[in-house]
Amino acid sequence: MAEVTSKVIPVIEEELVVEKRSVDTGGVRITKQVHAEEKIVDELLQHERVFVERHVVNQKVDMVPAIRREGNTLIIPLVEEVLVVEKQLILKEEVHLIIEQSKEQHSQTVTLRREEATIEHLPAVERKE
Fold first, then answer.
1. Distance separating alpha carbons of residues 82 and 60, to the nearest angstrom
2. What is the DSSP string of the chain?
3. How many CA atoms lie within 13 A of 68 on its CB side?
């Protein structure tokens, strides 16, 4: 009988080794500046003053008069009931409110702020993790 010889054939196995690394592909740097600028605001301002005058009327009326306006004067009637043989309305007085308007130029310095951004692109840096 013939002799059987055996041969060992090595089996090769390949392995894959995967490495990761970070690659910095660049960046952005943002800087901000605030600029302050003095501005003069020039506006026309309006003022009102009210003067009170009292006018004695002492006049008989049948009903309470309405508040009325004559030009720049607002007239507010004041009545009083007086006992006689019959009840009557007597217009005792009127209050005249005289409204005077004046205008005055007004200047004021105010600070206005403005922001400005500067963008700078940074070069790529290679890093291993």
1. 10
2. -PPP---PPPPP----------B---EEEEEEEEEEEEEEEEEEEEEEEEEEEEEEEEEEESSPPPPEEETTEEEEEEEEEEESSSEEEEEEEEEEEEEEEEEEEEEEEEEEEEEEEEEEEEPP-B---
3. 7
Cβ-contact 110, 42 below 8 angstroms: no
Percent of the chain whose predicted confidence (pLDDT) is above 70: 95
> pTM of the full predicted structure?
0.44
Please give the structure tokens belonging to residue 53: 């005058």
CA-CA distance, 77 to 73, in Å (whole number)?
Answer: 13
Task: Identify which of 45, 52, 35, 43 has the alpha carbon closest to the alpha carbon of residue 94.
Answer: 52
